[in-house]
Amino acid sequence: MTKVYLRPTGFVESPQRYEGESLRLAGTMLWFSQIEYITRDMISTQRQLVPVCQWNVFAAALPQSTRERCALLLDRITAPRAALQLGTRRIRLDQPHVMAIINATPDSFSDGGKNVDPEIAAEAAIAMSSAGAAIIDIGGESTRPGAPLVWEGDELNRVAPLIRRLAGTGVAISIDTRKALVMEGALQAGATMINDISALLYDDRAVEVARKSNVPVVLMHAPSQSSDPHKDGKYDDVVYDVFDWLEQRVSEVEAVGLSRETILVDPGIGFGKTLADNLAIINNLAIYHGLGCALLFGASRKRLIGALSNEAGATDRLGGSIFLAMKAVEQGAHIVRVHDAAETVQAIHVWRGLRDAALTAAV
User: Fold this and answer.
1) What pLDDT does residue 284 have?
2) Confidence (pTM)
């Protein structure tokens, strides 16, 4: 069986100067002038670059089933993403946003457990929100390689006081968990988004909780939905294998009542993937717009940065974290999940200034 993928590429700084030669990417501030047409079977992968202005002629010559598949993918790639409704907060996805990380865990790899105290964590979260983070993502269980499983009651007790404290301030809150009971408790406390590294597969009740809550849900790829999400990371080609897995998972949750408009996808950088795997995904990130969902990207302080920078420790990875966040933004990521919110917000503001100038430049 031959599978077909489309990757938008050839990004254009000032599309108004080249009428009819580019298309807008997923409602973002980016326009692309080329489409990489990719076919893959059991033997090989073939790629061909097609200019946007020649695409209709190229597609018309394809077999009908392939032509229909391409039409679906291109429609998903170009369709604007619906705004996210997080309680009273409405987050438009026509520009990139920052999701700031708060790990309310004593064994966090990135901050050494400094946010276990709800008051300290609340101050940090409010500072991140004030700096421009659109969403605060709160987790009570470390998912680093080798981290112990946390009982759901303990996990909820770590996050609920913080969520209640923040909910009254108007901050948009995401709960980072794979357990249905924690989802329920966090939503009751004031969270308005679910971020699940298991894509609602770890807990049998998670899909139903997400469906009933009708809040935005992040489905992340990991090679295993067991207690260890990092195991079994074997791929024929990681870029396409992750795409196939996410496409199937989005269809499954959509079939049981979740709206594609409320689904975000995350390719899961660092989860059961080698350095080469991670780099391949990052370099080809734009392909995941073909899933038709808002795209979330998280590589902040991850080990791949240390591997590429003389084994820098987790707290010494700011430069690499910002670069990877901006690499994702430049491929149309709608949300970047980061530890260093203020610095990343500043980088995005500068990037947006450049984009505004390019998009309003004289023809």
Assistant:
1) 98
2) 0.96
